[in-house]
Design a protein that fits this description.
heterodimer, A: 462 residues, two-stranded antiparallel sheet, 18 helices, 5 strands, 67% helix, 4% strand, globular, B: 325 residues, mainly alpha, 72% helix
Amino acid sequence: MIGHGFETVVLWTDACFFLLIAACVVGGLHAWRRPHLRRSWARVGERPVGMAAIVVLLVFLLIGILDSLHFRAALPPTAGQTETIYATEVTSVLDVVMHRQRTDVERTYSAPLATHAFVKEAIELPDGGQRRDFPRLVHGGAHLADAAQDHRADIVSRLALGAAVGVGLSLLAAACLSVFNGGIKRLMRGETQLAWRSAWLTWSVVAVVAGMLVSLAQGYHVFGTDKVGQDVFYLTLKSVRTALMIGTLTTLVTLPLAIALGILAGYFGGWVDDVIQYLYTVLNSIPGVLLIAAAVLMMQVFIENHPDWFATAAERSDARLLALCFILGVTSWTGLCRLLRGETLKLRELEYVQAARAFGVPTVRILLRHVLPNLMHIVIIALVMDFSGLVLAEAVLSYVGIGVDPNMASFGTLINAARMELARDPMVWWSLAAAFVFMFVLVLAANLLADVVRDAFDPRAG
Amino acid sequence: MWAYLVRRLMYALPILMGVNLLTFALFFVVNTPDDMARMQLGVKRVTPEAIERWKVERGYDKPLFFNEGAEDGEQLTDTVFFDKSLRMFVFDFGAADDGRDIAREIQQRMGPSLAIALPTFVLGLFVTVSFALMLVFFRATPLDFWGVVLCVAMMSISSLFYIIGGQWLISKVWHLVPISGYGGGLDAPRFLALPVMLGVIGGIGSSTRWYRTIFLEEISRDYVRTARAKGVSELTVLFRHVLKNAMIPILTGVVVVIPLLFMGSLIIESFFGIPGLGSYTIDAIQAQDFSVVRAMVFIGSVLYIVGLILTDLSYTLVDPRVRFE
């Protein structure tokens, strides 16, 4: 599909996302050079739970990154054409990897791994008559000559192949890890300083499951198809990016507001403090969902009235996603700001800050060198803890109709679409199950990591 | 105490004014009434006359802040800001898009909302506090560990799944209660049982963990050690000493939400088709009925401020050291 060249597209959320990743890398390097920060992060890695959660989150992050590298493929040149024309559709690297799942669209619902459709249709018989039966799927299991006979054996062999690849990947990881950690024995006995054994075990589970899913996905719709016949596996993986964006980009708004206002209020006191406190009391007193609803409604009106600002549908839904992150950020900085204000109040009375002031160090310098670094642990803990809440919030907001664009794949839109079909008999359960499992694993990993990070960074926790 | 109350209410006024200005800016300045009219009437084919008619029907045709064409006092009162924003202070919200009076609608819908929210709140508080006390009683045992694991797992599940799963299992498979709907009188418990139960279950994870942390912090204090040294049994320590002293942090989080119970729960009410304020809000959001959303924002913040004042009052009930100055 990219045989004729392509043109990279950087959507706004992509740019912000990569900016954030770059900031994390810079922050990581900075922490690496400071012994006390390194020790805190090492405490996260020493806990088996922490390592397991990090591995799972990194896998999700990889999916998110693949889905954030966007481009527009060039259309095949026609006769007499001088310059290349690019498709209006914006695709990502993940779309290329999952080309099969993206384009193999059925007519409507089909169960996971099915070879036949979910509802009966009138089928034309060769002799001209008609019969009501479950028609064969166009793509799911299309490679089977005799679907009834070969189906089970084919699934088993595909599962075995996938598991074998997974085990291979797991062994490869074990080999790499034991090189860095002084032999396979130390790794397997859990004698390494960081909990590499737990990381390896988690990776093995992920690799085997992913191997099976990918192997099955080559011939079937692993999680079935939805109402318009789209592959649910593909939609679920696309939702991961949306969830990650909501969970991370919001911090781009929250952090500057909370840090700047929190430090100013705590350090200067007086009328500055009064104004900032007034500001966050006002924001706090509006119930969160309603404030978000009001802001999103207004944003919809705005986007609706300026259609010329957005060249493609992808850009429009991207703008909506970014605006949603912005709105969530503006409504959720107050909690962190209050924490930082309280901590700054304490810090400014400490001797070293007083000494710096007595020496005539400029205020900006005191804030940046003496106050801010001592607040970072609160910021890091708050960041990690907010993530899971934001991912869950996205689902609810999309259900209410004030979340992401209805055409954008997200856990909320998946659940919303599937909810209507629960009344059906037999039930269409697979979209819900897929959204449930992926969301549960993502949020659980984030929650576990949040706990470990809090234990490692909170000075009060021994 | 009365002086204190009056002072607190005076503090509340500027905050409400701020909320009012903020929502006004959101609804009338970010997008002009013309933009909203175009959106509501369909962006493509819309005539200036239709926009004008839409604005007159809703009273949006006046100037925002200052009416130059009006007489003295009316220069300020005959404006959108006065009509739509300041009138809210006397709970005059005007009419919704379907022509019904919002204030009346809110009054009628408060009942069903409370019928769900109050039992959920009371039962939820009872269940989570008892669960947390149990975990603390068995602290540092496998029971505590697996209890916390259960809590973390439960808080990682979206509230939507609790509702969908509950409706499916209890109503569809077991046919115990109707899937959705609402009835008054003796019929009510049949309709309320499931939403209340799901509301409680959905909150168990995070609340239990929070209470557990509070109790654990309290149980490592010196007075608890003294009590144990005097031979007080562990159960008495938990209920007489720890629970009582943990009341302040618990009240801080709990009392604020009591007035907000009137607002109902958006998700539960809409899933179960309960004609409360939560589903009213959702319907308004989906129909883009701006006046209803604005009214709900205002009421929400009034109730929140009432909650803050109630919190302060409740401190004096549980901690005799706290006094009004």
